[in-house]
Amino acid sequence: MAAAVTVAGILYAARRLRSAAWACVLGALLGGAATHLLDRLLRSPGFGRGHVIDFIDYGGLFVGNVADIALTASGVLLVLLTLRGIPLRAEPVDERP
């Protein structure tokens, strides 16, 4: 359920996106969330109860997959962009004389 809400939120936020940095971050976040959502919906044991397949062992700390890498990296970059004050959308320009 959280992945579906995340995918919908990213798609909504990206409608008027003007920043290349934010586009990359939201693209990676969307890719990771959509991949996990599709795994949950389409893999066994059944619709909505599927398992995410983890296949990368991180030195015994945990096991993950490529979507986890995308989600983690985009989460870190999201925080950095926010702390640096980079806007999600370009500010409207007032063109009145």
Kindly report how far apart the N and C termini lie: 49 Å
Order of helices and strands: HHEEH
Largest sheet: 2 strands, antiparallel
Morphology call = flat
Radius of gyration: 17 Å
- How much strand content do the residues show? under 5%
Mean pLDDT score = 83
Task: Describe the protein in words.
With 97 residues, the chain is mainly alpha-helical. It has 3 helices and 2 strands; from the N terminus they run ααββα. The chain has a two-stranded antiparallel ribbon with strand order 1-2. The longest helix has 23 residues, at 20-42. It is flat and about 65 Å long. 14% of the residues are buried.
Summarize this, please?
The chain has 97 residues and is mainly alpha-helical. The protein is built from three helices and two strands, in the order H-H-E-E-H. It has a two-stranded antiparallel sheet.
Keywords:
97 residues, mainly alpha, two-stranded antiparallel ribbon, 2 strands, flat
Task: List the topology elements.
Blueprint: H1 2-13, H2 20-42, E1 56-57, E2 63-64, H3 66-84
